[in-house]
Amino acid sequence: MVLGKGTWLLVAVMSVACLVFVGPSAPKGVPFGRPLPVHAVKDIVPNRVMTWNICNPCEESNADRAAEIATYAPQVIGLQEACTRDVEQIRDYLKRFYGLAYHVEYGTVLRDWGRCGGVPWSPGAFGQALLSAAPMADPVGVEYPDGGSEDRGYMAVTTTVGGRPVRVFNTHLAQRRQEAVRAEQVGVLAGAVARHDRAIALGDFNAVPDAPELARMWAVTEGTGSRCRPATAATCEPTTDWLSKFDYVFLRGVAPIDHDVRPTPYSDHNLLYADVDPA
Fold this sequence. Notes:
Blueprint: H1 5-22, E1 45-53, H2 62-72, E2 74-83, H3 84-98, E3 103-111, H4 113-116, E4 118-119, E5 122-123, E6 125-132, E7 137-143, E8 153-161, E9 164-172, H5 179-193, E10 199-204, H6 215-220, E11 247-252, E12 255-262, E13 271-277
Parallel strand pairs: 1-2, 9-10
Antiparallel strand pairs: 1-13, 2-6, 3-6, 4-5, 7-8, 8-9, 10-11, 12-13
Helix pairs in contact: 2-3
């Protein structure tokens, strides 16, 4: 069958529209449940928290991202650089393929169709998200007064970790070479964390442990790695592909038990998890 010029034009327009609506963050290929490695845990670990900047735009498969999370099955995981639709798919795959059920809250600060799909007049939401095996209460999303080169903020919820209620914060600070902006952002975040007797603040802080802008965070919390402090920054295990320690789990009124950084091929940041004791 020979198509006329008008028909070919319609096909081309529909193809472009489809790409715009799907967006660059859609998973590649047909989703499938990847078998987990032999060291994978069998069920959700009730006292485990995790942070992971999943990288955007990186066009990784959400099925692969879900498999990475399922390998360690934290009670709570904070994601950064997350599109709402990606998070929905990750949660769906965790349940469908691995039997792990999570609640989700979003702390998005941008609407960006170039990153998250949609259309220019109705773009996808981009920012942070929290997944928790237990229900979450009192969610808040705060945009920092100065985001630097891109709007940034933090989100917070109250949920259960290790059988106790904990206020959990998830943030993504300003990009590198914006030290003064990050210092102001840490002031906002540290002030909010300090109002709680039991809190966990996790995320991508875009700063090494001895960076001056993190001083206020260290003043109200402690880290999870026993050998990773500002005074011993050289011994901290890197969490990024460029071998910097940028990702943290900060604790207030919560004791650290174990801490691990797990390399992953699906982001330019590694997964960081901590087992904690909130009692």
